[in-house]
Amino acid sequence: MAISFLLDGARIDLDEVDPTGSVLDFLRTQLRRTGTKEGCAEGDCGACTVLVGTLEAGPTVQWRALNSCIQFLPMLHGKALLTVESLAPEGVPNPLQACMADNGSSQCGFCTPGFVMSLHGRAIGAVGCDLAVEDVIAGNLCRCTGYGPILEAAQEVPVLAQDDAAVIAQLAEIAGLPASGEWQGRRWFAPRTAEELASLRQEYPDATLVAGATDVGLWVTKGFKVLDTVIFIGDIVELATIEASDEALFLGANVRHADAHAALAQLHPDLGELWRRFAGLQVRNAGTIGGNIANGSPIGDGPPALIALGAHLMLRSMEGTRTLPLEDFFLDYGRQDLRSGEFVAGVRIPRPAPDTAIHIAKLSRRFDSDISAVCGAFALTLEKGDVVSARVAFGGMAATPRRASACEAALVGQPFTLETMERAAEALREDFTPLDDVRGSSVYRLEAAGNLLHRLWLREQGGAVSVLDMEALDG
């Protein structure tokens, strides 16, 4: 058989699986579970939210809210699944559903199942349950009304009991087993170890690697791309390690953004704020640190910040492990320094020194769950009022995430003054010639990038330049 997973505690075995068929389509067309809706087919609106459980050490089941529209069916192998129908098996609404019905949380109702699943995840202790309610539902959009009644319902519902004992026993039989299949001449594999991945990568160097599918999913749903060979790597546990030391933080390539948030926030509050705004919770629950880097997007939020902090990338293959500065990985648009048979294994981020002035900011048209127009990251070492070293990196300003060498040169050896910041901002014109697109014009991007240097200087003077700063000063 190709894959096995649990739905409401019942095991489902599928012999033939389309490697890029979505979980959403399977639910709606094969199982007729039409409560789960398709709103955008790109992981943006949250109408298709489901809860997926993974067996963890303990043993326990770790539940996550995910967008089923961009989750491929083989990614369910060895996991447990809950849909909105799971919450009321006898037709009686659970406490959250009843509360939302009573207080008018739903108007047209189309988005409601997604909100229910996100908030049910919060109630049962799923990943992200410790976040503010507004953050939990940032990846759910309602086009009819305000969010007031929805937030009220979430606050009224207490923690709900989730008995996973039977699920744990069943998952123990199927979790951790490698899987593979063939469908209409297309192949897919789901290795469970890095060694298996390295072997497959060598045998199929042109295969598409899929960790969270938050980007590749759109290749299929929006670009109608046909992927001939797919290797699903998201369940390789040894690539999901988080190791913190006095010198650095190491994040394995498979660490989900939601899981990396706390460790990154400990490195610096700006990193925590950047990752809090890293799309909606459903996307952060699926997308990985390695996938965000390997994708090489010029508007990916992670690389500029990690480059500014001096991160190094670990690449692995059957030949061994290779390490390089993260900024050297990005060669040109769509081109990375990834040799045949290699895959991203992890990233090492040095812990900033106490005398480092850091500012990381994302500018986007919509505050939550949106792609950056400009993402700027600055790490300046200050001694006796002078800038002795500088690392400045931007996303959204060029074909790749890139350091701003002219800007850095204008900073190093100069007094840390507003005049120096202004000269460094002007030097950005030597570093970048941004494009005009729907997210911002070239003029806007250059002006905004320069303003971020000004914000860094203001913050170091003790001023508040964002809501995060104002909360810190009030505290």
Describe it:
- The strands form 5 sheets. The chain has a 5-stranded mixed beta sheet. A 5-stranded antiparallel beta sheet has the order 10-11-16-12-13.
- The protein has 18 helices and 20 strands.
- The protein folds into 3 domains: 1-175, Ubiquitin-like (UB roll), CATH 3.10.20.30; 238-350, Uridine Diphospho-n-acetylenolpyruvylglucosamine Reductase, domain 3; 356-472, Enolase-like, domain 1, CATH 3.30.390.
- Helix 9 runs antiparallel to helix 10 and helix 15 packs antiparallel against helix 16.
- It is globular and about 70 Å long.
- It is α+β, with helices and mostly antiparallel strands.
| Integer count of domains | 3
Give the averaged pLDDT, no decimals.
Answer: 93
User: CATH superfamily membership of the largest domain, which one?
Assistant: Beta-grasp domain
> Outline, from the CA principal axes?
globular
Protein name: Xanthine dehydrogenase small subunit
GO molecular function, one term: xanthine dehydrogenase activity
Pfam families: CO_deh_flav_C, FAD_binding_5, Fer2, Fer2_2
EC number: 1.17.1.4
